[in-house]
Specification:
With about 80 residues, the chain is mainly α. The protein has 2 helices and no strands. Keywords: Membrane, Transmembrane, Transmembrane helix.
């Protein structure tokens, strides 16, 4: 449990540190006159995408582990 929380904490800080770079790359993608907002988001998610996916997977693992522990506690309380 503690390792997963540490992992999520690291992923969150990685996302925070990459945020200025992502905004810069997204802004540079909108330099041509024919660019749209979609170009900004494409450049932004190009940098943030991998770290966001890893964070979401870690969060889902945390939710699954907690739900299993809660069910075990509930089942043991019902059996008593």
């Amino acid at each position: 449990m503690k390792k997963i929380l540490l992992f999520l904490h690291g992923c969150l800080w990685l996302n925070i540190c990459l945020l200025p770079l992502s905004v810069f790359i997204g802004g540079m993608a909108t330099d041509p006159p024919d660019s749209t907002v979609f170009d900004f988001w494409e450049g932004f998610l190009f940098i943030q995408g991998i770290s966001l996916i890893v964070f979401i997977i870690g969060f889902l693992i945390l939710v699954v582990i907690n739900s299993k522990k809660i069910m075990l506690i509930y089942n043991s309380a019902v059996l008593m």
